């Protein structure tokens, strides 16, 4: 049945009020919508999308409604009502008069909320406002999980029929798909988590002229970057390059940007990981167009992005703290807990977390209990059967994992701080199966007791270049508190306090050696606002100038900016690959 005009909007509203699911065409693609206060409707949407726990975004009609459910500062209100109209993560109220469905953001103390930003959204809420019942809608991307957001009417009819009970279309074509941007506010300033609709392709202004560089970004949270003169044009969010559809969206996006901005690349920058699909694109493109290329180390790119958006010309290095879940290191191992002395032309690995085995490789990121077992073995501590990870692993799994670690079979080494957060979440029983990236770390941040001032101390070696930072003392202290019956919130706080203290003490050591006093914090771990709140006062009290991300995300969504500026400086020094990749 096809209905047009005002009747179509009223029909969709009736579906939503009955607890059914609607696909709604927006500005950059389709959303799937349902009543955010209806637990059954939200659970049904999760089941249809096969999305177990990843938080859904919400849309509410105005700031007054948002403040019924969330705390909203003036800075957050400014961001919500800005022309970009992003999703903003807000602290949820513990006991609002009417509760958002718990399954909208399971286990989280924040909600991702946006205001209506198209006339169609406003018409929907105008009709919804005629009754008192429905105050908020789930508004999640209109696609199957891990696929790009749908943009075409016929594709929506074909692919969303099983997900939605009704589809609301319009006749305005969407030429470039773009997901909603996601932001937080920290210290009154923007902290981007996903830079897309409303922000891309607005350029990042650079402190120096650039040639035409194409930087292809990473594999996860992919964005690409094209530069010209003093402008870095960052793309919209492409997503994880895990299937043909997303890779095709990436390729089409690059072609569109090159036409739109009339940029013909003279240099291509890529991540060093040999298996990244974006890097393969770079190799093929370089061969096709006979272009030089520059490979950029993952964590160097993170620091470079932070330097560039903060306007640093590169006259002097910075202390770069690059913490994330995974990134290919120059030694062929997986990095992620790095202290770098870095400028645009190069870096020195000054300190890093002691590498531990990652049993099963990527499987350890999906099963935090695996990395918890690895950290227990590194600490010389047996897996107590009463510990939460023990229940998450069968006896056979434990035996296999121990053999993998002992023999180095399918157990690559990692210095990742992100994986240490996962291990602690597992040890506290907060997350044993990770259904989306960052789930375990988010669970750990959520339970932190803000009143706890205790610290888990790290033993920082007196000598060594680079410094190797062993997390074993942290694991020992955590287990001792756990045996004494300390609750998870206090332990989580002590862990966060300890990481903040570690960052400060290592930066002080490096300052004494180098005289540097600028610290750039980058990588996905620094999406953790609790960690930022604990770290920045310590660094500033020691006289450091701290550089944060305000324009591009600290996660891999900002990687391409760092690749571009580093590639340019290395190209200028003659450090390029003129040969075609094999």
* Top-tier CATH class of the largest domain: Alpha Beta
Number of helices: 19
Please state the second-level CATH architecture of the largest domain. 2-Layer Sandwich
Report helical residue fraction.
25-40%
Number of domains: 3
CATH fold group of the largest domain: Nucleotidyltransferase, domain 5
- Outline, from the CA principal axes? globular
Q: What is the radius of gyration computed over CA atoms, rounded to a whole number of angstroms?
A: 24 Å
Considering the protein shown, what is the CATH homologous superfamily of the largest domain?
Answer: ATPase, nucleotide binding domain
Kindly report the average pLDDT value.
94
Taking the alpha carbons of the first and last residues, their distance comes to 55 Å
Global structural class: alpha/beta
Give the helices and strands, then pairings.
Layout: H1 5-17, E1 22-25, E2 30-35, H2 39-49, E3 57-59, H3 63-69, H4 74-80, E4 87-91, E5 110-114, H5 119-128, E6 137-141, H6 153-159, E7 166-168, E8 182-186, E9 189-194, E10 204-210, E11 213-215, E12 225-234, H7 244-260, E13 267-271, H8 277-289, E14 293-296, H9 298-309, E15 318-328, E16 334-342, E17 347-353, E18 356-357, H10 362-366, H11 368-378, H12 388-392, H13 395-407, E19 413-414, H14 417-427, H15 439-446, E20 467-469, H16 472-483, H17 488-514, E21 518-522, H18 529-541, E22 545-547, H19 559-572
Parallel strand pairs: 1-7, 3-5, 4-8, 11-13, 13-14, 15-21, 17-20, 21-22
Antiparallel strand pairs: 1-2, 2-6, 3-6, 4-5, 8-9, 10-12, 11-12, 15-16, 16-17, 18-19
